[in-house]
Amino acid sequence: MANQNSLPLYEKYWYKHNYKRVTESLLFLLLLSLLAYRIISFNNYSFPWFLAFFCESWFTFSWFLTLATQWNPAVIKTYPGLLLQSVKELPAVDLFVTTADPVLEPPIITVNTVLSLLALDYPSHKLACYVSDDGCSPLNFYALQEASEFAKFWVPFCKKYDVQVRAPLRYFFHKPKFSTPEFNQEWLQMKDMYNHLSHKIELDELRKSNGDFEVFSDTDRTNHPTIIQVIRKNRECVADGLPHLIYISREKRPKHPHHFKAGAMNVLTRVSGLITNAPFMLNVDCDMIVNNPKVILHALCILLDSRGEKEVAFAQFPQQFYATLKDDPFGNQMAIFTKYLTAGIAGLQGPFYGGTNCLHRRKVIYGISPDNMEKGSSISEKDLKENFGVSKEFMESAADALEGRACLPNDINISNAVDIASQVANCGYEHATAWGKQVGWIYGSVTEDKLLGLIIHEKGWRSELCTPTPIAFTGFAPGGGPTTMTQQKRWATGLLEIFFSKHCPIIGTLLRGLTLRQCLAYMWIINWGLKPVFEVCYACLIAYCILTNSNFIPKDLGMCIPIAFFIIYKGYTISEYIASGLSIRAWWNNQRMSRITPMNAGFCAFLSILLKLLRISETVFDITKKDLPTSKDVEDDKDVGRYTFDESLVFLPGTTILLLQLTSMVIKLLGLQPLSQSGNRCGPGEIFCCVYLIICYWPFLRGLFETGKYRIPLSTVSISTILTYLFVHVCRRIIVG
Ligand SMILES: O=c1ccn([C@@H]2O[C@H](COP(=O)(O)OP(=O)(O)O[C@H]3O[C@H](CO)[C@@H](O)[C@H](O)[C@H]3O)[C@@H](O)[C@H]2O)c(=O)[nH]1
Ligand SMILES: [Mn+2]
């Protein structure tokens, strides 16, 4: 990474973890030998044997993807000190926050995220914070207005005492370590002010409103004109003031597709383009609080580095979480994922875009490729119009951005710009333009983040994973069964949408600039939506074999292969958890959830994609519910980690699989199994698999007998019972027939 002209602002190191490589390869060999064993055992050829072979081939391929993705992990080290020395003038950065529903995303959470952004360690006249509210909620607007008043005290306080976590919600969670009488007094004052602010917001005092809310009269969240309000401008244009704060609720009309978050991001891009037009844009979800105030400096080390400047499109920070539940009961804190897989991808063409915690180059979002950058060609007026739409002002701002002309903080006339900006936030603006197709956030997937990142990688750009200490951002990991399932189902759905589109990574590698290894990494994540189909088949196969007294697990010597695989795999995953300082309990919770989540959320996602491909229904972006972090005493409450259910059909596959395994166990125990026609009787292998699956599905088993939200709803159980009955019936027919 060394550079002759100037010192590199960041360095990248690839590291080897030989022990992991050896174990992973060994597991891969075992899977291959299992497949080979199946092929050569002619005596065993039967329907279960072939189905098992088919599923295991996919599992082997999946493991190969994991292996390939994790093979060359890398980390980078950034030098913000060097950046400050070598860059004459720091560039402007636009900050984007998206929120969409004041109930699922409580305004106090958004407010905290915004406060943590306003207090970043960066010249504040170079920052502008834009909040997109897809919920069109006056409460959000009001909360932000109040927050900007509070920020006048909060930001100087944070900077004076070099506070690390600049979101009051988290900061006041702990007593401060450091203390002088002056600090104590100010601390108490701030805490008081914050409590006041949060009460006001939570108690919804907005109804006693003032004139500002007129704009919200007669609005419905799905039917309203554009609302853009400048909550605060940095009039004095000074580095130690407060950044601009702008509220945007784009126009929404029924019947007019709004493309969920991708649509919101495009409006943010255009509106900010007219107002500040910063060359860099940092985007976060409403719950992603800045945990390290120097994040922008770290990310700029990558993007302004002499080599990074030409090659790297975006700097992505990992998604990590705060106030997490002990031992990861829902298996969604992704600690191992972040540690090994993200690092692995960072060693290839670069991390996926995660939808949040990412610093983008505006040019790249406008569709530029590394080759265009080299040529530096200017773009014709006709092209500008076709790509970016009819707004003259926006075309000018896009040309500035593409040709690298920065707009200076003192040039900006916000009030003027806001009037024009309303036009580009209207829902008809994108008609017959390249927005959502070649420009901006691309439409067509509910994981718009992975899609955008993929398209950027396909153009030949790289990305880098930025992992400063302390952790850059922390967000909210959903709790409970339904919320986790909704999120995972959306992810699997969105990934499948990408796979079945023209942006499929395989095509990207064959025809465009996506590297082969990066394609495998994308396939690894897309497999979240494909593998569940095989997992469900496999689970049914277990029950089928017990019910029909046939077998699919090799017997005699052949049995050593699955046993060895099982033991080594479990040992290997435990060691990953222990090496990361996590508990055995966390390991087990993740093992079990890695059986439950795909078979429910992933499988349902697959079905919903079939419906989409058959043009029967469309996919939607279901928002993840965000709860306020629990206070200490609630944290100790055992119930928060208990699995909850709701009426959603997402729990149907899992419930059915559990009932199937239970039924087949009962039939086995009662000795009601039919006599086996061939010599291949069901043996200990099938019984073990069945029992193991029942143990994994323990939360569901309990859910059959619990009450309230811990119970699987009767409707789900009834449908599952019917499905189980049908399955058993078919199995019996097969034997008789
Ligand atoms: O119509 C919509 C729907 C969602 N959002 C926002 O999108 C963000 C992410 O939504 P969330 O419900 O928190 O989804 P997560 O599953 O937690 O999000 C992950 O996955 C998404 C893709 O599915 C990415 O967009 C996110 O950045 C990534 O954190 C939130 O800020 C929402 O307010 C909108 O602005 N408009
Ligand atoms: Mn989220």
Automatic annotation (TrEMBL):
Give the binding site residues for UDP-alpha-D-glucose: E105, D134
Q: Offer one Pfam family short name for this entry.
A: Cellulose_synt
Superkingdom of origin:
Eukaryota
GO MF, one term, reads: glycosyltransferase activity
Q: Which UniProt keywords apply?
A: Cell wall biogenesis/degradation, Glycosyltransferase, Membrane, Transferase, Transmembrane, Transmembrane helix
Q: Name one GO biological process term.
A: cell wall organization
Query: Which chain regions cross the lipid bilayer?
Result: 21-40, 46-68, 533-553, 559-584, 649-670, 682-700, 712-731
Q: How does it sit in the membrane?
A: Multi-pass membrane protein
What broad class describes the main subcellular location of this protein? membrane
Q: Which residues bind Mn(2+)?
A: K261, D285
Q: What is any one of the record's Gene Ontology cellular component terms? A: endomembrane system
Q: State the active site.
A: D134, D449
> Where is this gene product found?
Endomembrane system
Q: Which Gene3D superfamilies does its entry note?
A: Spore Coat Polysaccharide Biosynthesis Protein SpsA, Chain A
Q: What is this protein called?
A: Cellulose synthase-like protein H1
Supply the source organism for this entry: Flemingia macrophylla
